[in-house]
């Protein structure tokens, strides 16, 4: 039987969007596939976590490095992957992120989520940026085929690396609607009293939280009687000192860092609206997660977000504080507009399916293996 290896090095609890991509892709491959044998490579320190949360029928192999040591991973992974190709003899290697090892025989598929290292290099810590600047072009050149998570990302791969369009397949991500479902919410998950607007994402420059706070404060100054709060959830990534200072200065801005899944669902469901001020996203899960819980969104009019949200969002210029403020004005006070936007949100959500994502991914596997 043809064997496919999937690199699940980023499958651990707080790994963000790549972890969600791995989880949903793997489970839907399991539901659809009967033709291929899959082997999953998971972090050494989270082998038990993977065994518990990923399909039992897919064999898991522990990586020779932990999730907490990226430097050791960079030093050891070349030798590790060459050894695994000899032992496991897999025919195809799928990396859901920026890493394509050298193999003697196995073909390589690389999933590219975004190319912000080319567009906004200052959104990375310097060491991380230089590593990616070295690694990513080589991985893209080495890959036999590339999956992009949006047409926007596909266009960026072509633009920055001159990759032929027929070497890239755009396969839209989706949202796990079994998880992002009202039935999973309990009243005991409440974390905020009163009305609030919600935003989620790692605290880093491109998420644009400082302008969001500026816009929120402008709105509150104009409407002094409002008791509205702004709730932000996300792990601290880098360049966050000014953000933490601003949070301390305003009691209406509530920062919760990383929250458990139950709290996340409650926040999505009970927010007046969800807001995503990020000025660069390869895809952008959160507006779809909010939509799954019947919450409308306001998002930036840049990068992939218009492709993902279509007509089902209020758009603003993420570099213009006044434009962001208009989201608060419109979505707090205009009930008729909010109702129409919610209906569009429900329609838009139907465009996205992990089952279709997995089916299209299997199609890419088959096409590459037939060559």
Describe this structure in words.
The protein has 371 residues and is α/β, with parallel strands linked by helices. It has two domains: 190 residues, Glycogen Phosphorylase B (Rossmann fold); 168 residues, Glycogen Phosphorylase B (Rossmann fold, 3-Layer(aba) Sandwich). Helix content is 44%, strand content 15%. The two termini are 17 Å apart.
Q: Which class of secondary structure composition applies to the elements?
A: alpha/beta
CATH topology of the largest domain: Rossmann fold
CATH C-level category of the largest domain = Alpha Beta
The total strand number stands at 13
Total helical elements: 14
Helix content: 40-55%
The CATH homology group name of the largest domain: Glycogen Phosphorylase B
Q: What's the multimeric state?
A: single chain
Distance between the termini: 17 Å
Strand order of the largest sheet: 3-2-1-4-5-6-7
Average pLDDT metric? 93
Shape: globular
User: How large is the radius of gyration?
Assistant: 21 Å
Order of helices and strands: EHEHEHEEHHEHEEHEHEHEHEHEHHH
CATH architecture of the largest domain: 3-Layer(aba) Sandwich
Weakly predicted, low-confidence segments? none
Content of β-strand = 5-15%
